[in-house]
Amino acid sequence: MTRPMLTQREAAAACGVSRSTIRRRREAGELPGSVEDPVRGWMIPVDALLAAGFRLNAPAPPDSDTSPAPEAGSGVVPGGGQDAAALRAELDRVRAEHALALAEAQFEQRLAAAEVGHLRAQLAERGERIADLQRAVAALTPAPARDVLAPGAEGMSVPEQGGSELARDESGGRRPWWGGRP
């Protein structure tokens, strides 16, 4: 049974890599069964290409890093082991960014909780201060006016307005309350 064989140029086009990549891999011994044909050049078995990690009919590699990434869920793994390492590095970078963002969010949450506690304490202090001020205002506000009893009402006499140390004698003059003469 004969295995299908491709030239270096055909293998490079079928795998989507350069001819120098195929040549380096062949010279490194990663493509066993390669034989040199005097007319066509080096012939590489398709089985050896697949065993080395190449994919047949793969798209050509991008010329620069500005090419779009493969669609998510397409099941396409970009070009073998080199891209897998790049994807792992990208995954590690994204995980680190996510862990950092999560830590920042948790810190901000703790900071906000502390600020809420501080504001509640200030609110309680200000509430106590307001209550103290309301008590002070109530103490300084004059009491409501009381009705003065008329003299002789219900057997009670109303003291005279004026000095309390003098009382009136029979002649209508004033005399000291202790009963002595003025």
TrEMBL record:
<dbReference type="Pfam" id="PF12728">
    <property type="entry name" value="HTH_17"/>
</dbReference>
<keyword id="KW-0614">Plasmid</keyword>
<protein>
    <submittedName>
        <fullName>Helix-turn-helix domain-containing protein</fullName>
    </submittedName>
</protein>
<dbReference type="InterPro" id="IPR041657">
    <property type="entry name" value="HTH_17"/>
</dbReference>
<feature type="region of interest" description="Disordered">
    <location>
        <begin position="57"/>
        <end position="84"/>
    </location>
</feature>
<feature type="region of interest" description="Disordered">
    <location>
        <begin position="148"/>
        <end position="182"/>
    </location>
</feature>
<feature type="compositionally biased region" description="Low complexity">
    <location>
        <begin position="63"/>
        <end position="72"/>
    </location>
</feature>
<feature type="domain" description="Helix-turn-helix">
    <location>
        <begin position="5"/>
        <end position="51"/>
    </location>
</feature>
<feature type="region of interest" description="Disordered">
    <location>
        <begin position="1"/>
        <end position="37"/>
    </location>
</feature>
